[in-house]
## 1
Amino acid sequence: MTDYIRLDKALSNMGAASRKEVKEAVKKGKILVNGIPAKSSDIKITAADELIINGILLKYKKYEYYMLNKPAGVISATTDSKEQTVTDLISGKRKDLFPVGRLDKDTVGLLIITNDGALAHDLLSPVKHVKKTYFVRVEGRIQTETENIFSAGIRIGSEQFQPAELVILKNDEVSEAEITIYEGKFHQIKRMFEAVGNRVIFLKRLSMGNLRLDDSLPEGDYRELSEEELQQLKYRQ
Ligand code: URA
């Protein structure tokens, strides 16, 4: 099925021009659709159409997918009156982007940014148990029985957490581990470690589903997902 969208909506979604600017540009004959000047700003286009605006070639994309290496100090939201948000970090961004789930303000690492609501829903649905792996640094030694406590599914107060896999990497005054969880409760990893006596001092998400954070992506940077990465995210075994 071909998806049609209004020219002005497509361009404003993509962050290329406001609807008013599209109207003006159409009047001046500055928007070409497949080489022909658009007659009005509300004509319907598809992803197959070639758009030239003020001499610049654009391709309408229905969905966009980015991998962001979230830095600390930025909130997982689309807009905020005071704080910088993760979508503020995507330059020239289209207007309908949002983060897939949340990382705490001080958590860094993999965050998917997209406008594909169905994929986001699929990745976040609690019944899908999508795995998420984090690197964690905590205060104090991690007791070795913590691996069993987490893999059995820890209970904190009245809340039951699903089994999680813990691999201790370094055990000292400050310890390091990788932890894999299959749900996404509020402050989940911090609360799990707090419950066994370790305060989390650094948390980084390394992967979500089969998608791993690109090691070469500095904190604060982002890039589009490759077609292969997108397929890995969509079709998980
Ligand atoms: N668990 C946490 O405690 N914080 C995060 O940001 C993600 C998982």
Note: The two ends are 27 Å apart (CA to CA).
## 2
Amino acid sequence: MDKAQETVIKEVKQLIKQAKRVCILTGAGVSAESGISTFREAQDGKGLWSQYDPKQLASLDGFLKDPEKVWQWYQWRREVNQDKKPNPAHIAISQWQKQAKASGKQQVTLVTQNVDGLHQQAGSDPDLYEVSGSLVELHGNIWQNHCLQCGEKHSDDVTGTQQVPKCKPCGGQVRPSVVWFGEALDEKKWQAAETAAYCCDLFLSIGTSSQVYPAAGLMMLAKSQGAKIVEINPEPTQSTVVDYQIKGKAGKVLPLVF
Ligand code: BJW
Ligand code: ZN
């Protein structure tokens, strides 16, 4: 790490100490060091959207056209993700949240676009997402499913099935509980995320290309209210409002700054 980056890290450490309300937004890059593919990177052809068409696989239209194909793709993703473990980035964030909660002096709300459940595995708490200081899974969770027709949850009874399961109560098709392109985000979760961004004095964007809305807009919202913006990413992104850029992998950088 060069001198300039060391100085940025020192300044960010100071900001973290002083902040009263923190909003952290994470993306696929945070799970990259756990061995989970990101979406938009070339990654030698391993980025999901360089191999698969998001219109066919991550949209309601795609599911209605070929439910089996979409269902099997998600079953494959679950198989790949099954043995993946939280990395030092997930763990550092969860420890920070726990310390902040215990001290009562800081609120650290974690908003993730990731559906892999690794923040939760690392100890961040999604059940309290209406309360600041917890975890908001903005794009859902790949381990959960629900009925397209009646909304009934189907999480445990469909593991491993290659055929699209039918909902027992109503006969509708079961789909993964993730947010596809063109779909609205869960209203309560979105409100929690907006509130955390609006009220924070420090906003950290970690491992996201900041291309997918409305999540990418949270950084602008925080900036508009005077928050300092920190970005942690080994690559440049399209974000234009960043105050402190740390160019590095989340799993290496986060244990240094918290
Ligand atoms: C590392 C690292 C390491 C690597 N450490 N970093 C405004 C403008 C333009 C378009 C829109 C707009 N508003 C809405 C839209 C349309 C659309 C959209 O944003 N499209 C853009 C792509 C152009 N948005 C939507 O459709 C959303 N819905 C919506 O707006 O509904 C409106 C509505 C309202 C009311 C009624 C009805 C409708 C929904 C978006 C859902 C996104 N879903 C997905 C799939 C989830 C399920 C699944 O997993 O299959 O979510 S797409 C995919 O992208 C996934 C991710 O959460 C999301 C974000 O990706 P992310 O995390 O940023 O990953 P990458 O790969 O892009 O970047 C990884 C980064 O990590 C890179 O920068 C690396 O450098 C870095 N990295 N290693 C740190 N070790
Ligand atoms: Zn049903």
Note: The mean pLDDT is 93.
## 3
Amino acid sequence: MLDTDAWWRDAVIYQVYPRSFADSDGDGMGDLPGITGRLQHLQELGIDAVWLSPFYPSPQHDAGYDVADYRGVDPRFGELGDADKLIAEAHGRGIKVIVDLVPNHTSSEHAWFQAALAAGPGSPERERYIFRSSGEEPPNSWKSVFGGSAWERLPDGDWYLHLFDVSQPDLNWDNPEVRAEFLDVLRFWLDRGVDGFRVDVAHGLVKEANLTDWTTTSTILGGLDPAGPPPPMWDQEGVHEIYQSWRRVLDEYPGGRILVAEAWVAPASRLARYVRPDEMHQAFNFPYLDAPWRPAELRAVIDETLEANDAVGATTTWVLSNHDVVRHASRLGFPVGTPRMPGIGAEDPQPDAALGLRRARAATLLMLGLPGSAYLYQGEELGLPEHTTMPDEFREDPAWERSGHAERGRDGCRVPLPWEADAPSYGFGPTDASWLPQPATWAEYALDRQQGVPGSTWELYRTALSLRREHGLGRGSVVWQEGAFAFRNGDVLVLTNFGSEAVELPSGARLLVSSEPLDGDGRIPTDVTVWAAL
Ligand code: NOJ
């Protein structure tokens, strides 16, 4: 393997949520040509790769995580040729492309599920999914992650399992046909030139054989009990041989193609089993995303994940935001220790926006100072907050629906991006259409208000990404320092002030970048991260 093939070990990977990135045709829904048209900005930002959330044909009951055809492009987003153009244009700009793969479930509109419905109980078509006949009562007590039972009954009496929405039937990974199909889907996209796959619900594919009752609500969005056995629907031993078989396919292709696991698995040593040398390359570090803004917890999660990944020779990843969680610019504006919320509505307690942004900038600079690979979520480079006051009638998230509106859902972090302060839809598209409403205050976050403006969040990200590369921080290590929350990574000191008093830069250290201006005496204020050359 060439060293450049291990590009992912220190890569900064930017998540594009196609619905909300850029709309080329003015229908209010982002699309692939829109992304291609804005790649220049991502190049200027200085990222290494993009990960595209699903753009495949889909009825969009779960924003595309309900795939009806794994080998196409939904007409809302363009056509296959647009995907090819996007990949080629990104590569031309030195940006790798990772696509999303959703193997735990298909859409109920997928040809296989339609065939299963038509063929009836006991048919081989139903063997591709998890059908059971158990009379009036569901086969077991499992709950859907989005709320309610995980089982749906058909008029013919059979029940089928759906760990997510009722329109997302779980596939049966004991069926060789399912396995063969996904190997082929991998090849389909690898042949088109993609550099890897983000694997949705990677810990869920294999279910415990007896489908044993599980009484607590099954959720990927909450912590699993690290001490107990894994729940019967998550993190079963059988998932690993699937990823080993995928890895063998990826390794046939040149240039370092990668698999990244979306696996809500704890503790870190258990998660690290997904990134053993013959399995995936990376796994999202959700414990880091979940850690409160407190030095002891952050240090513990950093140490624990570095140690667990080192033990298997894998790189550690870091992440603060994505399309499923409250944006960190808002999350960090709540009192420290508030659990990560599935969403916020206008009637809920509101975050302190200024504090949230200040801490978000400090958190990002801390994250980008860590060795390994970092994931950014579109809009965080603009300092975007969660849309916390979105009127309920606009919400589309099935988690909002299925929870009986008990949970606010994830729409607040999915609002289309503001590119130009004075344009319709803030330049998201050529018209004022936008599939989710953009807050009236978003002009100030628009890219064109931040470019070239010293101290803007956009310029902070650009500076940090460029220094990160220059100083090789992604390939470095963490050496904790005495005193403040600080570590040395190569020749750079990364220091975050969690205290209530300003602190001095160590003598002889030369400031490289700071998440906020230093105070009048050149000291580091509260909730500020600095990088300094030693
Ligand atoms: C995780 C995805 O990130 C989320 O958006 C989706 O709803 C579930 N998996 C189900 O596919």
Note: DSSP finds 15 helices and 16 strands in the chain.
